[in-house]
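Title: Prediction job returns without error message
Component: structure pipeline
Severity: low
Priority: P3
Assignee: unassigned

Description:
Job completed but the reporter wants confirmation the result is attached to the right record. Sequence as submitted:
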Amino acid sequence: CAFSTKHTGLGVVGTVGTIHLIKTFQPLFSPFKVNQIPQKIQNILTGKMFFSGILMVFLVVVIYILTFVIHFQVIKYTGVDEDSMPDSYRSTLLGTSVKLQAGETVPSLWEQIVHINKHMLKVNDATSFKHHHSSTWYEWPFHYKGLVYWWDNLPNKTHRCVYLFGNPLIYWIVIISVLLSFYLLDKKFWVIFFEKINISNEMKRNLIAISICFYAWAVNYIPYSLFVKRTCFVYHYHPSLYFGILGFASILDYITKSCSR
């Protein structure tokens, strides 16, 4: 749970990986039988899938590590939550009162990255408190509650803050998008792909795009209702929100093309 809530973008990576697997093995699910496909072709497809999968994982890991490399290169001064790092690291920050103890050495960049990830998972795994701005999974699609990122009290009982609150209309449109996707896929998708009804390639691509967006919305959203018990916030819904918006655009494209025929 801690890993999934702190790495919400992994659902997007998983979606891309699933699409890649489908495209890779699509020839194996053609009208021909698998055993009718030459062994050489099957080996090529398997090798292509394996290499592409390894490359995808490698790129994800590299990009993930690079974000922390940039983080530690930019952070030069003391600040909020610096106590999450060991004193040996804090002693290198400008403006700190922490001194490097005798026999201690400054941790390497890799040690800093490993430590902050371990600490992050440990803290998130133990998060069970109720936050004033926390929300539950069934509240997110309706979006009537935002989240304060930063607050600063000013004189005369005023304040300034950074408040996360999206456009409610967009959130409500995504609800419509999900319902329309479910309706279209229930009525059209299974008929096209299993009953072999003739349809243009363009319309078929539209339905495939809708199905991918619906699948991505579901796999990024539904786990929060089943497995995640810790405190969550509205930003955990954002990966699903993105795919819901894309799904709505695909539905509009499908409807306009259907009406023009």
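Comment from assignee: result matches the submitted record. Confidence is low (pLDDT under 50) at residues 1-5.
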